[in-house]
Amino acid sequence: MAATPLPTAGADAVTEILDNVTSSAGNPVSDVFTEVAESTGLTGLLHNLTGMTLSRFLSLVALAAVCLVVMKLVQRFVRNLLKRGTIEKSLHAFIRATVKILLWFLFFLIMASALGIDVTSLVAVLSVAGLAVSLAVQGILSNLAGGLQVLTSKAFKVGDYIETNSVSGTVAEIGMAHTKLTTIDNKVIYIPNSEIASAKILNYNPQERRRVDLVFSASYDDPTARVVGAIRGVIDAHPKALQDPEPFVRLSAFKDSCVEYTVRVWCETEDYWDLYYDLLEQVRDAFDQQGITMTYPHMNVHIQKS
Beta strands 209-218 and 248-254: pairing type? Predict the structure, then answer.
């Protein structure tokens, strides 16, 4: 069956309706850009450039040159200020980059204003765009904020041995996004700064001295004075054990199978592990030499015949 053609009046009506819809809807994307361009004055920028006189061009060039010179002076002043200050060196690069970005932003605003662009509307548009970008990269910004907090709080520095988030190691690098730790077995751990900024940090290096805490066990049959004397003899003979504050050696607990003795000895921070392991080895040798028994958990069973 052949299609029945529309009446002429009906076809004209449909065409008119489609034309009205198209003209009223338009292109949403182009409409947005057109509105932004009109509000910021970008539509008149081409007209200003084509009608620019030589004197106006030279004044713009002079303004740009002055701005660039001022930018160089400000950057040099910031570099000198950072060298003389006490700010963590890992933060210097970030501060210089931030200052440079701000200076270039001000430079473009000044030049845009000189060209007749409405800077207020342009800043508003850029603020909305910046908000959208910040929402898209909020994870990166969180690490960046954490890096700033770590560097400004000075909870640790490169070379310190720290413990955080169930990991420990020597701080090898404090970056803006991650902190790099080197473990004792030479593994490298990267911790996001957003995590390390909110975590509990145990720093072993800030103080010049550390205390070695140990517990030794001996038999109930060994006299207390002999056990304490053997331990004190080892401590007094060790060159890295400090005598001020005085070492602490006392009986501290009665256990099921042994008597415990608590030992606390101060040393320089860099000597901590040497003294720790030396005391473990040398106290055992001293116990063997003096016949002191280092007991372990055991049970004595007494059988009586009726």
Answer: unpaired
